[in-house]
Amino acid sequence: MSHARKRKQEFDAGFEVSKRLSVARQELVDIAKKISRLQDLMGIDSPASLSVHGEGDTSLLETEGEFEAQRRPKEVKLMGKFLQGFVEALKDKWLAEQKNQLESESLSVNVDSHVAPSSSTQPPPVPIFPPRPKDGTPQKIRNWRKECKQIQEEYEALLGSDSDKSYPTLRALEDQGTTNAVQDWKSKQAVLAAARSIVSVTPVLADGKTGLPCSGFILHRYEHAGVIFSVIVTCSAVVCTAGRKLNPPPKLYVGLPDKETVLQAHLFCFNDHFDIALLLLPFDLSLDIPCLGCCPDYNQEVFVLGRDKDASLRVEHGVISWTEESNYMGRDYYMFLDGEVPEGGTGGPVIDHDGVFRGMAFKLSPMPAVLSISTIMSCSAMFMHFGRVAWPKPGWNLRAVASVDVDILESLSVHNIKNGYIVEEVHDGTPAEISGICRGDVIVSINGHKELTSLPELEDYLLLLGWKYLIGSVTTTNLEIVKLLIVSHPVESVVGRSDFAD
Predict the structure, then answer these.
(1) Which of 68, 199, 379, 418 is the most exposed place for a label (fewest CB within 10 A)?
(2) What residues have CB less than 8 Å from 256, skipping those under 6 apart?
(3) What residues does the PDZ domain cover (predicted)?
(4) pLDDT reported for residue 194
């Protein structure tokens, strides 16, 4: 048995004995005072004195003289004898009880093997550390710190087995990754503020099995027919696989940050191309509407937040990588994370160091992916207004000029190209091929927009065209594309007519 555990058990047992003995002594003193007052009221001249002694002392109430009964009425004499007999009987009973208790407690304190764990709901006493050396020599300071560390380790080991787990300050760390990811106070404040908007999302399939546990976060609230709905965005993997909605659809359970409240959500709509789903909860939940920002920057440090199956917060730290995969799962607009996604973090937010939501994380191989928050907001707006998402689909795979190697950038700089998109692939029979766009071309503007520099920005622009398509009820849209042919150096402007996908 460790020294800290033994000291705690002796302390608990000794403290309990001392407390009971103190209470019992006080009760005896109160009884003695009452007896004295009764004797005064009855006119009994009794020099009885009450003294509280240790165990086994039977002289708690001693009569140092005899009543002068001959000068008192007979009723007074009888009352005095009755009162004295009553006190003697009470005294003997109390002494017997205290003797048994003291023997039992003494045995518990002295025999370690018979010590039962304390049933008190209070936390164990804090450890007692030796005082810091006064002379402060380096060697003595090191020895002092070593001794303190040893005491602290013994105390933590004691808490790990015997502490009341309901005390959050006494619980052991649940996730070392979260601890390592969030170190400074500003980051902790940002993470905790964002956590009040994050939920866990658990699909339960028809056979009772649990699907992929994901996270989600509240986007906004809206009122319909007098009912306030909370809109939760999460990963579409909770309701579909390989682009198809699960049949029968799973039940979706949302766990709130309090780790106690679990509510069944309703699927509003989803889009497998953008990997998002909107869930509705007919409640005004105690969730904070997050601060929504814009697309994250390349090489930006971010936090990835999520909640595990028990709705506990999980956090990882990473950097938005310059990596671009033009045809990764058919999603040019993905950004990639140099880091990890925490347990249950798919569908959870990616935030900056100010706590601003910049995207949604997906746990993929070989690198986690990030969907820009601006893309999520565009899709959500079309979902809420039209029940679907639309965007033109030219039929190409692109790479941003800014993501290529320096030697390629130097070659492009000869043609005064600083941004734009390099065509890496053109699909057969698509509007891009019909318009004459070829592999290796550099697109320098689309519909006159030259400020587009990243693939997420291009995707947001295509979604904007989709919004106009849904509003205007047009079937096609024209894309005026200015391209540069590197080999022959001419700049050409082509107009492609693209259908919309949804």
Answers:
(1) 68
(2) 199, 262, 263, 285, 286, 287, 311
(3) 420-455
(4) 97
